[in-house]
Amino acid sequence: MEIEGRDFLNTPPKKTVRFGGTVANTLAKLQKGDTSDYELIKHQLSDPDIKDAQIISWLQEFRTCVTQLGRDHEQLIYVVLKLPWLGRSQAVVEEYLAFLSNLVSAQTVYLRACLRMVITNFAPKRIRIQEGNVDISDSDDEDENLPRTFDHCHQALQLITRYVPSTSRFLMPILSDKFPFVQKSSRTLECYVHNLLRVSVYIPDLRRDIIELIISKMLTLDVSAPRSEIEEVESGAQQDANGASQDDCLFDMVSPKHFRKPDASVMVHPVAERLDTMMTVLLAYIKDICHVNGSLDIEKTKALYKDLVSVFDKVVLPTHASCHVQYYMFYLCSFRLGLAEAFLDHLWKMFHAPNQPPVLRQAAAGYMGSFMARAKFLPVSTVKACLDLLVPWLHLYINSQDSGSKAFCDVNLHGSFYTACQAVFYTLIFRHNAILEGNMKKGLAYLQGLNLERIVMCQLNPLRVCLPAVTNMFAAITSSGKLIEPIYQVWEEPSDCMIDVPKKKVRKGSMEEEDDFLHGGTPHGDSGVGMTPGSYDSHLHSPRSGVSGLSVTGDACAHL
């Protein structure tokens, strides 16, 4: 009798009493039509107070007759799969893992059920919280055993994969189906996304599909909350805390604390907080995959780059009004200049390919311009190399239209042209100083060599179509570079000496239209180039876990 080491007074007796026959005898009776013991076993397995010793005893019996547990016994198997094995003693965990291994090896018909059981535990269990008279069900965020629980889930999934090599073929639909609703708590989404990415490490064949699933869900959040709405909520919280507001500048980077509550790293806007949480996990994964012992692993980074670009092309590029998710590519490209140049080359080829749908070509140009403008890690030489691709393309486009019947301002006809113009203008807004630095004469000669006057003054009139904010800033910096001012006639009031000279009747509307492209006005009847997606324009915040460094708030040029 084992009594040593046991506190008799404070330890309840082990519950090992059970009713009915063995599992093998029960299955034999069932074949003869006697279901009494079969129902009794299901009832005992469903006992919420079942003890570790009982679970181990049952599992050992099931393992001895696993070959008999065919499709006819699925109700019993489903009850066994619901046993509370997670969070139990190590002995229970090991016995349960052994049972799973035996079951999927002998009865592959239960593979999906086993996978669903494991994946269900990729997020914290739901608990009921009563607020007033309403029951609210959400995750148990305070469970300290979650890391251990998740470790055991991945151990189970790896065992199943080892015994059933085709597991990956059945797993992806389940991962998608079990993905929590995006309205769930940030903690629930954080845990599930983290566990999905962990699966991609030991089942690499699923990595691209897993990343696509995660980014698709993030895009759902991204487009559901307009940037202006997020900024308004976060700014309001900051005003409440400080008693004053900060001025927003169109192209300026706003202080990180502008979008964070002063007493926490949690964003006030619920959708922004969920998106920010998922983004942090994704960027942490990217960093960990690409770095080994603190050093960039070139081959691993290249492989991940291919997967991320593929997902970018498939789900990010076609998505309108995405403002934040695309930063995962921005972050990856910051690791090495070669990655950034490869991505820019990819975007250029996408834009330059006439067989691509116009919406994708325009999106590629928008991302290209935003990337060149915003990426501090891009040297001027790379920016100039990209401009040397875009600007000649614009001149060639103008050449092809000058003598044609469609050489007039029309967004539908010339959408790609206007988007490319906007990309060039936007890039110069941010990079003109860098181009002029060091050697002003040489830099100015380069800018003049772009012959921007011809682009601006062509019959397609790009400044009339581009976003007014970009138009204003571009006009401002180019009249610093003396590119537009020499060819632009400003209005001058007649002097007193001209009082006897008959004045030409000047149509007021025409003057206002002349000034439209310098003051950002868009003439009536024309719409701005708004077909491009959200770009890499975002305010920075202090990283949640030392990795992200990117908030889910952006500035007014996010639709470039």
TrEMBL record:
Q: According to the UniProt record, where is the region Disordered?
A: 510-548
GO terms (BP aspect): transcription initiation at RNA polymerase I promoter
UniProt GO cellular component terms: nucleus
Which PANTHER family does the entry link to?
A: RNA POLYMERASE I-SPECIFIC TRANSCRIPTION INITIATION FACTOR RRN3-RELATED (PTHR12790:SF0), TRANSCRIPTION INITIATION FACTOR IA RRN3 (PTHR12790)
Q: Name its species.
A: Sinocyclocheilus grahami (Dianchi golden-line fish)
In the UniProt record, the gene name given for this protein reads LOC107601284
Which protein is depicted? Answer: RRN3 homolog, RNA polymerase I transcription factor
**Family of the protein in this entry:** Belongs to the RRN3 family.
MF terms per GO, please? Answer: RNA polymerase I core binding; RNA polymerase I general transcription initiation factor activity
Coiled-coil stretches noted in the UniProt entry, renumbered to this chain: none
